[in-house]
Amino acid sequence: MDAPRISMILLACNQQATARAAAESCLAQQCEPLEIVLSDDASSDSTYAQLQAAAQAYRGPHRVRARRNERNLGIGAHYNQLLLETQGELLVTAAGDDMSTPQRVAQLAAAWDATGARADLISSHYIDMAPDGTLGAHIVTDDLGQLTLAGWCARRPFTVGATHAFTRRLMTHFGPFIDGVWYEDPIMALRAITTGGAVTVPQALVHYRRGGSSRWPRTQRGAELVRWVRTQNRRVLAEIAQHTQDATLAGCRDEVVAALGPTLARETYLAAMLDAPDAPTRWQACMAAPGLPLGWRLRKFLTFTFPEQAAALKHLKARWRGR
Hints:
Blueprint: E1 6-12, H1 19-27, E2 35-40, H2 47-57, E3 63-68, H3 75-85, E4 90-95, E5 99-100, H4 104-114, E6 121-129, E7 135-139, H5 149-154, E8 165-167, H6 168-174, H7 184-193, E9 198-209, H8 222-250, H9 253-275, H10 279-287, H11 294-305, H12 307-321
Parallel strand pairs: 1-2, 1-4, 2-3, 6-9
Antiparallel strand pairs: 4-8, 5-9, 6-7, 6-8
Helix pairs in contact: 1-2, 7-8, 8-9, 8-12, 9-11, 10-11, 11-12
């Protein structure tokens, strides 16, 4: 039997409450036969069991299997592994806490076919979904078909990786994600516009659940605040490193490095604040970054010098705003 031309990959980790429903929305795709891989990133809860149950109960035209990583890889490395274990030329992504509409793959594939399979990234709009599953607004993402390198450098496009489909050749051309990559959406957008291009399907094809790991945690503990900022800082620096590597290969390094310069300066400063062993060293780092606004530098200095007070203040502000 010929291999399916499209693979649908669901990435899940510690999402036992939503994983089975997310998986079943993949299995319910009304389209040509797919390769569907339900993949768990070494969860510590029953996520993998939920994916296994969905796969074992399935009866239909798609080729379905559940698998898991032996150790937790993180999003970028998880993608790298799934590229090795799938066959489709187009890969449709799904997350373990989102829902794909039944026509999602069919509409993404039709948009890809309409370009003569030239486009390397196909995106869509989405329906906002609250953590409890309540559906909200129709969210319109940027039209990637109109995106240019100059436009990307001026403002990174609003696109959500959970709505993406991308070609295998795109990943083969640029290679696997480097260590630490977490936010693959902007990376895929830059890769695509420097190769075969991208398109956006003007329909909402995913119910996208709010409240992922990048969301600010409601905490009054300074140690948790510092840990969260450090995690986000490392993820953003990895993203910048990936952009720089990709832009070098694509022949647009100077433009991309210039566009990312302000973000790199801020994240480098945050890393210095986080890594400083004491307040005097932190103050020296604060005074050694004159290119950044003084008020912002001082706020970050105070945040990481007095993290308990900063966490309590942030918590109070969040409660006051009703967040």
